[in-house]
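Could you join me in thinking about how sequence relates to backbone shape in a protein? We need material for that, and I hope you will provide a protein of your own picking. Once you have written the record down, we can walk along the chain together:

…
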Amino acid sequence: MSAISLMITSPALGTPVSMSLSLELTVGEATALIARILARKYPALFTPTGDEMLVLLEEDSFESASAVLNPKEILGTLLATHVIEENSRIALV
């Protein structure tokens, strides 16, 4: 497996968007990429600030946020250690 599909949501969007990301990306690189993609797809709803973070959600709500992901961690490592799984719910905040 060279990529993982994650369900990404943002307070501005309100609905999750599925994205496939390379397992070789760091969380910081994935955050920047996701922000650029969301800004391109939803310019009226999302404007990146450069200060975004990825937060693991336990359920679909932002109240269920369980952990801010370390920007230096590699997605593949997070998958191997079961911090994230295929189709994990992640918030871009």
The first helix runs from residue 27 to 41. The two ends are 27 Å apart (CA to CA). The helical segments are 27-41, 75-80.
